[in-house]
Every structure is written in C-alpha cells, then in structure tokens.
Amino acid sequence: MEILYEDNHIIIVNKRAGEIVQGDKTGDEPLSETLKRYIKERDAKPGNVFIGVVHRLDRPVSGVVMFAKTSKALSRLNAMFASGDVHKTYWAVSRNEPAQVEATLTHYISTVERNNKSYASLTPKEGAKKAMLSYRLIARSERYNLLEVNLMTGRKHQIRVQLSAIGCPVKGDLKYGDKRSNPDGNISLHARRIEFVHPVSQKPIDVTAPVPAGDTLWLALEQYATQHP
C-alpha cells in the first residue's frame, strides 16, 4: 500500500497495475476494501471505516487514485470531478512515435458493452460522446516513446482508444492495437499526477505517483523526462 497523501477527508494511493479500484464480477478484492481493512487495522478503529470511490482506473493501469474518507468529501469530490475541477495527467508508453510532437485530439467515442471496448470516430455518430485530450512527447528510448497526456473529458478507455486512433497504441494494450502483450499482462499507462483544490480546507493539492517500481523501461523514461523537462 503506497500512500501518497492522506488527511482526515482524503486518501490518495499509487495503484499497482492489475488491481481493481471497485468491486466487479471477478470477485477479487478491490482497492477500496483493501484500504478499509488497512485503515481499520492501522488506526485500531472499532467500527466501520468509510471509503468512498470518486474515480476509477482501468485494471491494467497503474498510478494515482483518490478516495474519500468522509461523506462530506465524497459528495464534494463527486461534484468537482463532474465539473472538471480535478486535473489528471497520465503517462503512456507507445512503441510508435506520433506524427506530431504535441497535439490536441478530438474524437467521438462510442462503447460496446458486449466486448467492453470503445471506438473512436473523427465525425459525430449517434450515441457517441465527444472526447478531447492533449498530448506531448516527453521522452524517447531506443524502441519506445513516452507521451504525457492531459484529459479534457473523461470517457471509457479514452486515452487508450484515442492514442490507438493516431497509430500509437499503449504498449501491451492488445485490445487497442498493440502487437505484443507485456509480461505481466498489464499495459504501460500510468496516472502520473492529480491536482485539485481540497474540498474542505480549500488548499491546493498536487500529488505525483512514482512509476511502477522495478520496471526498468518506466524508470529509464521517467529519468529522461525529469532531466529534460
């Protein structure tokens, strides 16, 4: 459990790829329940521990996830996410280099629940939702490229499907067009940073999640990106 920030109302953790944020049909223990048990034991709480889920990351994605520790924080954070007042930055590794070093992408995304997959179109379609993100190429290695991505909307699998649409699928993401899986079956997409104004104290909060420990490619790209901002 890598806790990046905690106070009386909020806890922010660095999710490992492969963990689920909230319970699903697999029956695996979600991070929300792991946190409840951890806090109950750590603080020797006699009653139930409140943990509210305010946003999610796909199972194969790593990085920063925020939970509410009070109902007051949960309702306020839900409103902040809905209004776009929480800013999230992602890092994505791609085998392919984008045609432009930086750009803003606009697509219309529709989702098919049967196969849990999203599809991007350049033109509006019935039932599709507008999706926008900006990216910037911030590091290269001999075989891979690191893109910094800022979301302007929050659609299902948005980064994965939009990067795939420009020929830059996330490394290991077979669902969206990469040719080879990662050894652990996860994908090289990391929620790097979250910025917001605290819903109770009104203080600015800025939290960065270290890249997956022990992953030499991630560590090398991180080192390059931080040394060449």
Structural account:
The chain has 4 helices and 11 strands. The chain has helices at 31-42, 71-82, 158-165, 216-227; strands at 3-6, 10-15, 52-53, 62-68, 87-94, 102-112, 117-121, 129-140, 145-151, 189-197, 204-208. It is globular and about 55 Å long. Strands 1, 2, 3, 4, 5, 6, 7, 8, 9, 10 and 11 form an 11-stranded mixed β-sheet that branches. The chain is 19% helix and 33% strand. With 229 residues, the protein is α+β, with helices and mostly antiparallel strands. The mean pLDDT is 95. A hairpin with an 8-residue loop joins β3 (52-53) and β4 (62-68).
State the distance separating the first and last CA atoms. 29 Å
Low-confidence spans = none
Structural class: alpha+beta
Main sheet attributes: strand count, strand direction, barrel closure: 11 strands, mixed
